[in-house]
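User: Ribonuclease J, Afipia carboxydohydrogena:
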Amino acid sequence: MARADELSFVPLGGIGEIGMNLSLYGLGKGRQRSWLAVDLGVSFGNEEHLPGIDVVMPDIRFIESEKKNLVGLVLTHAHEDHFGAIIDLWPRLQCPIYATKFSAALFEAKCASERNPPNIPVTVIESGGRIDIGPFNVEFVAVQHSIPESHALAIRTAEGLVIHTGDWKLDPTPLIGEPTNEKRLRELGDEGVLALVGDSTNAVREGRSASEREVALGLAEIIKAAKGRVAVTTFASNVSRMRAVAEAAREADREVVLIGRAMERVAQVARETGYLDGIAPFRGADLYGHFPPNKVLALCTGSQGEPRAALARIANDDHPEVTLNKGDTVIFSSRTIPGNEKAVGAIINGLVSQGIKVITDRTHMVHVSGHPRRDELRDMISWVRPQLLIPAHGEALHLSEHASLARSCGVPKVLVCRNGDQVRLAPGEPAIVEQVPSGRLYKDGKILEDQNARAVVARRRLAFAGGAFVALALTEQGELADDPQVDLVGIPERNAAGELMDELIYDVAVATFDNLPRAKRRDSDAVGEAIRRAVRSAIAEQWGKKTVCVVHVLEV
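Assistant: Predicted structure for Ribonuclease J:
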């Protein structure tokens, strides 16, 4: 008897971490399996650990090798961690893309802002719509989140129905869009749900996420009471927050000035798609200085401490058009993403030291999460009643807590996996059956590098312990043609005894060469390696760190 088709789930990003989302669903047998991709996002580099790396993307080797069987890419929503890698990676896949109107429009605007982007067509699907993509029937189920038109995906196959929640929350009073579609989710539960692959971001937090309506009231109160100029920073994609700020500014008789390209791009798309209907046009940064301090509000990018974003430049008094002074107010209407605490803290401390009032969600209702807390997760489980739950979109602690909660809710089977695991969903017992290639790609300037690329590894070492560079020229007889040249980068000028390090290294290089047997002095490779080892060892002895050492030997 022929073996039944197997339904598989393969995460290549977004599990065991927050960001860089890419999930695959496979249906079929062996190499004849059809694949459906869900989201293709980025995470952002940490300058301390990845110097020079701005963006991190999932390694797509596995699905690239299967691209003839890749029937499509479906977007749950238009956050960077869900769609930010498409421009760079789609040329390697060249599959159809499906998204709803706002996501498609924001992606088009993102492409337009790039220099020479590839031509990437997107098929627009109505919210609540269904479409056949290969052997998969995909339904877009509306959910609330911190960006318009977020959707859970109901993925129907011959082997069963899977609900991929994407990012979601329950907000009974949203500023934009409808509440999460409880009625449809309950109907899907009645239909029978094989597996629920669900957002775990807030699985460690009890209760329920607050409503955007509460944030709007909090912002209105603060902005109306503020003296002097007001600046609000938030995620550029949070159109609900943009609308709340605009309405609060209108009540306080202030003009809203947009500061930052990302903010301008999202605002334009939100107007085109109707999400800012009734909101007065925003002003450009060039008009900021034309308004009295108590009549202006700057809506800025830079809530995560990004050094090149608007708020950092304003805080450093480095913005060409926008300034803040003592007595002005800055509102951080956002949460700090883990890893960005130092950068955000530096900006806050810089603003406070200038006499600027800083307001955050630690003391005021100026931000709420776009992800479900534990009571909301319980609701989702009770509505869809899955046979299997797979925690996704979270670090190890979040996944573990979501799994424990699911078991306590009576979910029959719970499976925790990691990026690169191939999970059999059906038929038979759910299990991790294989490992596929996975990892990270680093965007280094204009170049995509593997996570183990020499340049990335070397730069990390250089950032930690600097570099020593030695150049020398040899005659055919194996003699020094001139004095060696030594250049130390990122290494202390003097040792603990006050001696010049470059002079010490020069002496080590000359002594090492002089002590080589005459036959080896004619071998440039042998000379270079001997001096490299000696110099590196000497620096470690004097400084206590193992530096990068490069020796160039020229034959003259």
